[in-house]
Amino acid sequence: MKAILVLDMPDSCRECYLRSLADDCQVVGRYVQEYREQKNKPDWCPLQKLPDEKTGTAYLDEQFQHPAFNVGWNACLDELVEYSRRNKEISK
Q: Which domain holds residue 89?
C-alpha cells in the first residue's frame, strides 16, 4: 500500500514540517543541522514536487489521437491539490 502526503514544499530543512526540534529528518531519520544552517535541502530529501500538468494530445495509435490520458492525469493532480486545500481550511 502507498500513501501521499501533500504539503507546501519547503525550500530548505529549516522550513520543513518534518524536521524535529533535534534537527532530525523524521522521514528518513538523518541529522539535518548542516542543511538547516545552510538553508538548503539535501539531495536525498524524500519530498518531491508534484509533477506538472500534461498538455497536448496522447497518441493511442497512429490513427487515433485522444486527450483522455492527459485529462485523467491533470484531474488526478487537481484532486490531490484540492483535497489538501480543503483539509488545510478545516484544520484552521
A: 50-92
